[in-house]
Amino acid sequence: MHIPEPVLAPPFNITRASHTVLRVRDLDASRAFYTELCGLVVSDEDSGTLWLRGREENCHHSLVLRAGDRPLCERIGMRVQTADDIRKAQDHFGSIGVATQIVDVPFQGPTLQFRDSLGTPVELTASMPLKERMFMAYDGYRGAAAQRADHWQLQAQDVGRGLGFWHPLGFRTSEYTYSEDAAGVNLWGVWMQRKGNPHDLVYTNGPGPRLHHFAYCLRDAADLVHACDVAGALGYGRRLERGPGRHGISGAMFIYFRDPDGHRIELFNTHYQHIDLEPPVGWSLDDPRRADQWGLPAQEKWFMEATEFEGADPALPALTSELPTLEKFLQLA
């Protein structure tokens, strides 16, 4: 399948996935989950908001939790290189008819907010206050000791449309999934990156836009297993939704948990660098190894359930296929 050639001189410089803003019903329950199980560090808090970061991160936050009546993802946040990139981004989006606004966000300063071509709410920031990196404070490690935020996977009603929006902004495709039929080649998923590993932003086919999961990188496989043990000890064992296993796409070892509101977090390690110019890897939808090199398939709810974005009503995708679920696997066993 043809994936466009990389855009090496985008109109402004997005550097990486930065932060996720979630709405939760019980801030205390969410704080316990993300600090005691996932191992994130609290940077700041007030009566209605909690700002957290990974142990390796010195930027103020990579996860923002806001108290509310209904669980949602308010937006995903990306970093740009400089404040001038905020202005360049606003000019670029204005030139292609994308509405934007610049707002002052706590611990971010001037922040550009917009929606992509699928309706995903996004914000760009160029600066955050710096906090101490805590990755060598081993005496304070908790649970999985998540080190840093890495990527999002979003469900998209039209994967090609998502690729078409982000590709001109310098996002490079590392891997993708496809199928072929009499009408041609269909794009089912695309893994795009800006920071030099396989992905910052992933779109996979499904009712969208919705946040399927956000992901944090761990030190090693031992931390994955330790996180499962800690989950059992803290009463979160049933919140382990998938894994441990190893993906074919990206090659990462993984586990997935659902937080008290049902938001899905992936804890993973061991994916690769994707810095030099190289062709993306294509995976046929018929190849089950794309999802699992080993380990059991995902439950049906892993495919069907996701977090809605604020102000975005999910639309059904045009493409449909039979899902390779754990339930079907057990029926055939």
Write the layout of secondary structure elements.
Blueprint (H helix, E strand, L loop, with lengths): L13 E11 L2 H11 L3 E5 L3 E5 L9 E5 L4 E9 L2 H13 L4 E6 L3 E7 L5 E5 L22 E9 L2 H8 L5 E10 L2 E10 L7 E5 L4 E8 L3 H14 L5 E7 L6 E6 L5 E6 L11 E4 L15 H5 L2 E2 L17 H7 L1
Parallel strand pairs: 1-4, 5-8, 9-12, 10-17, 13-16
Antiparallel strand pairs: 1-5, 2-3, 3-4, 6-7, 7-8, 9-13, 10-11, 11-12, 13-18, 14-15, 15-16
Task: Please describe the structure with a list of short key phrases separated by commas or semicolons.
333 residues; 17% helix; 2,3-Dihydroxybiphenyl 1,2-Dioxygenase, domain 1; eight-stranded mixed β-sheet; alpha+beta
Brief summary of the model shown:
This protein has helices at residues 27-37, 83-95, 159-166, 221-234, 300-304, 326-332, and strands spanning 14-24, 41-45, 49-53, 63-67, 72-80, 100-105, 109-115, 121-125, 148-156, 172-181, 184-193, 201-205, 210-217, 240-246, 253-258, 264-269, 281-284, 307-308. It has 333 residues and is α+β, with helices and mostly antiparallel strands.
Largest sheet geometry? 10 strands, mixed
What would CATH call the architecture of the largest domain? Roll
CATH class of the largest domain: Alpha Beta
What level of helicity do the residues show? 10-25%
